[in-house]
MobA/VirD2-like nuclease domain-containing protein
Amino acid sequence: MAKIIFPQNPQKKNYRNPDAVKNLIHYILKKKKTPNTVIGALGVNGSSEKMMIEQMLFIQDYYRNCKGKRIIHFWISFADDENLKLDFADYRHIGYQIADFFENQHQVVFALHEDTDNAHIHFAVNPVNYCTGKKYHWQKADSRRLTSLMNQVVEQVVDQKNSA
């Protein structure tokens, strides 16, 4: 039904360069990929791309935590399944539910990309916790927890649509 994907080449997409936050958020919010502007943000002002980037970089600078990975990137791809008839509100709801995985302690930007056969939601997560300044270090168990959450959320949305 849906699956979580992380960039496949860690050497190429390690997001350690100073422009990583700007480049990734710019890519996620590209107009040609998001024609229906299904975009969301937690922990940052989502009114403009520039504001989102500045606020993520501010947190990293404020806590002097600018070394290593500057941004976490993953996306959720939805299979071209006839039983999965999601509308834009459903995708936005799923995006916010997945963003909540980071417990309102990490800034998250997401957007639905509609430029391929399979709709997919890209996520950019500031690894620096804006409450403590500590960095989030992704573990395999996090991938399992996130996959479980994603499956629950998508199943719940599909069940609600089918019962309506």
